[in-house]
Structure formats: structure tokens, C-alpha cells
Write a structure and sequence with these properties.
two-stranded antiparallel sheet; 426 residues; binds zinc ion; mainly alpha
Length: 426
């Protein structure tokens, strides 16, 4: 059977959702059946047909544009990868893009430090549209398209027009038939309850202005290494985490005319009343990009330093003492590898303290800001040789999480020895 391909598609403009390709193929280009449209654009019928994260992007590039060389651009300009990549270190962004191109879309959650229950806070369960964008699109090209940033939950207004977004089509089909109705924007407005909206204010306007730049500009201050430095500078300038939290929350209340708890609840920022404290304590993960946008506005208004360094994407070793001999010992022990692994694993930024935390799982997970179970999973992913090198470096004692993990791996062997010993004695 010869696969259907498009090789022709009205050009998607930057910020148009990749999903538009299937809708347009069905509705405007060939007037095919749904299955034919999916196959022509994506090469297959199943999967997450809204293509929010660009699952199948390599195939789409081949089918839509003739070869696979456009996959990276499609990811950056037409999927949520293009939004969240700003909050990732260079190596993690690269490996995530490679995973997406290879069709391993499950890596999305790990790269973002998200759990399946976080998905609803990242992208809207409805496709959303702006009435003025629809009119402008019709005038410009004759048909409207779904916009990527309209689908981000933490943005409930159109970034170009400021209009509140309308919720439209919802997913149809069961969990194994995750196909979206192939409507164009404006055709299928759902009658759903209006969410708890954030009222217009100077603070909200500044926040939305930052979001406008997300698909076209580089935003190096969102990168992990820069963000850690910005948060540390803010805490140190404002006299500690407690007073920095108070000061920034007061600023947000003034600028947004809404308390932080209400803003985070409405925009699903995570952390609710503690959103600011979580950022200042480096509990931030890539999925929390919207919270970093919110904090940026406040730091800016308070005249605090925002680091926007492009150099050294790596998480720096964070040592209170900063003694050179200790730095060297840690480097030799492979702490950098440990921090890179934490980065790949989507652990909160506070994982830069891992090198300093010579204690058990409970204390370390609390300090880093993750569940005990997540830290155990992370430890379980480490190579024995890496754990052994960390232990040999004398940075970690016998009571540390590193030693516990090594002991856990040794256990089955010990059990085997115990079992075999009596046999040997017989
Ligand atoms: Zn609009």
C-alpha cells in the first residue's frame, strides 16, 4: 500500500499549532476522510493527534515538507517544546528534542520534572481560541489556525489582543483513540464554565508581554543556571528567604491587585500561596516556567539583579564554603556527573545541593523538594560505579543516601551468599 503524503500545505506561521496541519489537510487541502488526513500528515492514525509536544515530528516533517530536516524547526515553532525548552539546560533540551524526533514522547514528563497529574496544568484540556485572532487570520489568509500559546494553561488571554480565550473542542474518543475533532477555530465553541479569571492589571500585562517573546526570542534568564543565580541574588539582597518572600509577594499584590494564592490558583502555577517561596528555595522545575515569568516581573520592578548568562549551561557546584581543595575533591568524585543526571531527571533546581547533603533519603528529599520515592528512583537510576566513587570520595558517610543505595544493591548478593553458605558447609 502506498502511503498518502501531502507535500503541500498552506504554510504554518510561527506559533501555529502543529495540529493545524491535520485539520487543514482534511478541511481545505484534499477534503479527505479523517483517517486519510491523519495518515497524510503524520504517517499513522493513532497517538496524540493534537501534537502538542510534537510526537511523530520527524514523520510529520517528511510528509508535510518533503524530508525530515525541518523537524527541529517544527518542534521550536509549533509545539510546546518551543515553550518549555527555555527552562531547560542545553544538554537536556538537546536530548529531549532527540527523543521527540525518535518518537519517544514519554520523555516529555521527565524532561519537565512533571508527573502525569501535572499535564492538565501545562496545556488546556480544551482547544482555545481568540475571536480577534480568528478575524485577523480570515482577513490575512482566508482561514483561522489554532495558536500554540493559547493552549498554555498559565496564559488565559490572547497575547496579541488581550482578549479572554474561548474554550472550544474537547478531546473525543476513549483513552486509546485520542483523536481531536478536526474543526477550525471558531467552529465548535463549547459551552463550558468560565474559569476564575485574573483581572487586568499592570502586573498581568507585564507577565503577558514576557510570554509574547517565548516563541521568537531567546530568554536566557529562564535557563537553570541563570535562574539559580537570580534567585540566590534576590534572597541575599532581601535578607533571606522569609523576607524575600514577603517583599516579592507584596510587590505582586500591588502590581496585580490580586494575592499570589489567587493568581497561582487561576493560572495553575503550582505551589498556590507558596509559589514565590518555592522559586526562592529553588524548588523550581522546567514545568514551572510560568512561575519564573511571574517572578521576573517582580524582580524587575524591585530593581533586583536578573542573571541572563548564556555561558555555562551546566549547574554549578554550589558550596557554601567554596574552598578550592573541596571543589577539586568533589569534581574528582564525579559530582558534576551527579548534577547532570539530576538535570536529566528533571529534579528541582535545589538538587545542586546534593553534593553537600550527607544525610539519609528523608532529609535529602525534603531539602531538595521532592518525594522520598522520587529520590529513591533517582538513586536507583545511578550506576554502581558512580555511587561507589561518590562514597569513596569521603563526601558521603555510611548514613548517607548514597551508602543506603549501595547497600540496597548489595543486599541480594548478601542474601545469595547466606543461602549458599550452609550448602557449602554440608
Ligand atoms: Zn488574539
Amino acid at each position: 500500500m502506498t502511503l498518502r503524503r501531502c507535500y503541500f500545505m498552506p504554510l504554518l506561521r510561527t506559533g501555529d499549532l502543529l495540529f493545524n496541519a491535520v485539520v487543514l489537510q482534511r478541511r481545505l487541502v484534499d477534503r479527505t476522510t479523517i483517517h486519510e488526513a491523519l495518515e497524510a500528515v503524520r504517517g499513522s492514525v493513532g497517538g496524540l493527534a493534537r501534537d502538542l509536544f510534537g510526537h511523530n515530528v520527524t514523520e510529520i516533517s517528511k510528509h508535510l515538507l518533503g524530508d525530515s530536516s525541518h523537524a527541529e524547526r517544527l518542534l521550536q515553532e509549533h509545539t510546546l517544546f518551543g515553550v518549555f525548552r527555555h527552562a531547560l539546560s542545553g544538554p537536556v533540551a538537546t536530548s529531549w528534542a532527540e527523543d521527540l524526533k525518535a518518537g519517544r514522547h514519554l520523555s516529555c514528563l521527565q524532561s519537565l520534572g512533571a508527573s502525569p497529574s501535572d499535564i492538565g496544568a501545562l496545556s488546556s484540556p480544551y482547544l482555545r481560541s481568540c475571536r480577534q485572532c480568528i478575524d485577523a487570520d480570515r482577513e490575512l489568509q482566508g482561514f483561522p489556525t489554532w495558536k500554540l500559546t493559547h493552549q498554555v494553561v498559565a496564559v488565559d488571554c490572547c497575547l496579541d489582543h488581550g482578549a479572554v480565550l474561548d474554550s472550544e473542542s474537547r478531546l473525543i474518543g476513549g483513552s486509546h483513540v485520542r483523536i481531536w475533532p478536526l474543526y477550525l477555530p471558531g467552529e465548535n465553541r463549547a459551552s463550558c464554565t468560565t474559569p476564575d479569571l485574573v483581572p487586568p492589571s499592570d502586573g498581568y500585562a507585564a507577565y503577558l508581554r514576557l510570554w509574547r517573546r517565548v516563541l521568537t526570542d531567546e530568554l536566557p534568564w529562564l535557563k537553570p543556571s541563570a535562574w539559580i543565580q537570580s534567585m540566590q541574588a534576590a534572597v541575599s539582597k532581601l535578607g533571606g528567604v522569609d523576607s524575600a518572600t514577603r517583599e516579592i509577594e507584596n510587590d505582586i499584590q500591588r502590581a496585580w491587585r490580586t494575592p499570589i494564592g489567587k493568581i497561582s490558583a487561576a493560572l495553575l502555577l503550582g505551589g498556590n500561596e507558596n509559589a514565590v517561596r518555592e522559586e526562592l528555595s529553588l524548588r523550581s522545575r522546567p514545568k514551572d516556567i510560568a512561575r519564573r515569568m511571574l517572578m521576573h516581573g517582580s524582580l524587575d520592578r524591585l530593581g533586583l539583579e536578573l542573571v541572563a548568562s548564556n555561558e555555562g549551561d551546566q549547574r554549578e557546584l554550589l558550596l557554601s564554603a567554596g574552598r578550592e581543595d573541596r571543589q577539586l575533591a568533589l569534581r574528582n568524585a564525579g559530582i558534576e556527573e551527579l548534577l547532570n543526571l539530576a538535570d536529566q531527571f528533571g529534579l528541582p533546581l535545589a538538587s545542586i545541593r546534593l553534593a553537600e547533603l550527607d544525610s539519609g533519603f528523608a532529609h535529602v528529599s525534603q531539602t531538595v523538594g521532592i518525594h522520598n520515592e522520587s529520590l529513591r528512583k533517582f538513586a536507583a537510576s545511578m550506576e554502581v560505579s558512580m555511587l561507589q566513587r561518590l562514597l569513596d570520595s569521603l563526601q558521603f558517610s555510611a548514613e548517607s543516601w548514597v551508602a543506603s543505595e549501595l547497600a540496597r544493591r548489595d543486599k541480594p548478593q548478601q542474601a545469595k551468599v547466606l543461602r549458599t553458605t550452609p550448602v557449602a558447609m554440608e
